[in-house]
Structure formats: C-alpha cells, structure tokens
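Hey, quick one: can you model this chain's 3D structure?
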Amino acid sequence: IEAAFDDYFGQNLRGKDIIDDSMQYSLKAGGKRIRPILLLEVCKAYGGDIDQAMPFAVAIEMIHTYSLIHDDLPCMDNDDLRRGKPTNHVVYGYDIAVLAGDGLLNLAAETMTHACLQMPHAQRGLKAMQTILSASGSSGMILGQVADIKFQSDDMMVETLDYINAYKTGKMLTASILAGAILAGVESEELNQLEHIGDDIGLLFQLVDDLLDIVGNAEKLGKRTQMDIQNEKVTYPLLLGIDKTHERIEELQKTLMEKIKGLSITSEFLIETIQFLVNREY
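Sure thing. Here's the predicted structure for all 282 residues.
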C-alpha cells in the first residue's frame, strides 16, 4: 500500500508540486492502514485479485486521509498533531489544507474510475466504487460528521452517540470490507453478513478510540489525548463510564467472533483485526 501511493502523483504542472506535497504529507504520515488492508485481505480471502483491488485500497485511504485533514481544521476539531506530526494546516496553511483534502477526494474517484476502465469485471469495480463513495458522502461519513457537530448535548443518549459513530466511523470501515468482497465476486447474502460485521467493527473501533483519548499515551498514539474533553464532546467513557465502556467492548468482541464464524470463509485476518483493535496500546 505504501509503495502504491507514489504511482498516483508526479504530473509536471505549475503549482502541482505545492498541492501534491500537501496531499502526500498527510497521506504518507503513517497510520494503521486498517481500511485498505481490510479491503485487500477480504478480497484475498474470497479468492479475488489483489492487484486489481489495490487501486480501490489506495483510494479508500486517500478518502480517509482527506477526512482527517478536514477534521483537524480550526473550524472542526482544531487539532495540531496527527500521527505524531504537525497537522496539515499547521504546515501548509488553512487554505492549502482544505484544497489538499479536496484533491485527495477527487484523486480517489479518479483512481477508482481508471481501475474500472482497465479491469475485466468492470461491473464489480463500479459497484465497489459506488459502495466506497456512498459510505464517504453525505449519506455516510459526512452525515456522521454533521451529526457529531449538531447533535452534541449534555443530555445525549447512547442511541444518538451510536448513530453519530455508525456514520462517522463505521460506514467507511464497512465499505472497506464490502468493497473487497464485491471485487472478489461475492454475492448478496454473504455481503449482508459482512455488512453487519463491518458495522460492529466500526462501533468497536470508536469505543476503543474514545477510551484512548482519555487514558491513552499521546506518544504511542501519535496525537494529543484529552481532546474530546477540551472540545466538550460527548464520548462513550464520558457517557457510560470507563468500566461500562470496557464491558461493551468485551461484549462486542464476543459477538463479532460469532458472526465471523458464520461466514463461508475462514478469516484469521478478521479475527486478528478484532484482537488488534481491542488490544490497541493505551
């Protein structure tokens, strides 16, 4: 995945070096690469072609990175550290950071469109592309971001927080799994099962992430902790308490393991992913 990023930059146009530098600064800043790896591993598990899936894996990381650039802006979460480095707007300015995010979103669509035109099963590619773009758009990740901004309140219910995170975090993780399966030619019933697994993984990811913001080590995480408290955002530990949040994580882990057993494949990678998310370092 890291090596593949370089293939999508490098046109010699005036000013292109500026926007490319900003886009690549955030794209290559590190991170777990959970979304692209999920896409590739699920595709492989169902017998798909990894080379044909790679552009979609790269694209989903571009979309995720654009969302982080915008999320860190002063008008949003106002973070100045991401993946252990100064955030994009701190280095390149507010204006270029906005454009870098826009550029990554557009480049992701270009990358997937080009892949669809080259692959033998173009319909699969288009369906995977539609799944990813729908999950990241105004009915997916962006909707979750809007809800996160507008639905914050002192009397927030758990159901509201679940709704926010299902869209803001969950949709893109689910799309990673579904797109990988679609590219491998998986049919509808199995896709339904994978969608439920993806939704649960998204919730698990957010539960752990919320805990890390309170009790995590900033040096290990590569970003500042206690930011949710500073921004007066309601999170699972603040709403449920730390012990209850741990309990919900354990319950969700058990549920996910049972659901994974019901798939037509044996996926050690999905099991290991659940274990990795639960045991992320604090």
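One thing worth noting: The first strand starts at residue 81 and ends at 82.
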